[in-house]
C-alpha cells in the first residue's frame, strides 16, 4: 500500500512539546554523531528560564522596593536625627535659660533675705530707740515732777520764811508786853451762851494780827 504523503501544513498542531523530539548532532569520542533531542526538555529548560527571569525580576523589584524603603528610612532617620539635634540644642538652650533664671532667682532670694534681715535689724533698732526714748521720757517726767515738787517745797518754805519774817517784823514793831500777873498778854476766848458764838477779848497792847480768822472755813489761827 503506497504511503500517503502530507504536507507539514496539513499536520495536526501539537499543543505541547512533551514527547516530541528533533534531530541533533553531538560529538562523541571525537566523532560527530546524530542524536535525538527531546523538545520537552528544551521546553522545561525554557520554562525554568522564564521562571528564573520572573523570579529575578521580582527579586529586582523587591530589591528596588527595599532600596527605596531603605532610602526613605534613611531620609526619615536623617530628618529624625536633625529634629533630635534641634531638640537637643533647644534643650541645651532651655537648660541654660533655666540655669540663668535659677541664678537670678537665687540672687533675688539672697537680696530678699538680706532686706528682711536689714528690716529686722532696723525694727530691733527702732524698738531699742523706742524703749530708750520711753525710759528717757519717764526719767525726764520724773525729774520734772521732782523739780516741781522741789519748787513747790521751796515755794512753801519761802512762804513760811516770809511768814516768819513778817511775824518777826510784827514782833519787832509791836513787842509783846507782860501783864500785871507777869504773863505774856494773849487774847482770851469765851462762848456767849445766848447765841453760842466765840468771843475773843484782848487788851490794847495785843496786836490784832496775832489772831487770824479764815472767812471761808471759819477756822481761827493764832499766830505765835
Task: Describe the fold and architecture.
- This protein has 224 residues and is α+β, with helices and mostly antiparallel strands.
- 60% of the residues lie in helices and 14% in strands.
- The protein has one helix and six strands.
- Strands 1-2 form a two-stranded antiparallel ribbon. A two-stranded antiparallel sheet has the order 3-4.
- A hairpin with a 2-residue loop joins strand 1 (21-28) and strand 2.
- The chain is rod-shaped.
- The model has no long low-confidence stretch (mean pLDDT 82).
What keywords describe this structure?
single chain, 224 residues, alpha+beta, two-stranded antiparallel ribbon
Provide a count of the helices: 1
Helix content: 55-70%
Low-confidence stretches: none
Radius of gyration: 77 Å
Strand percent estimate: 5-15%
Largest beta sheet: what is the strand line-up? 1-2
Total beta-strand segments: 6
Order of helices and strands: EEHEEEE
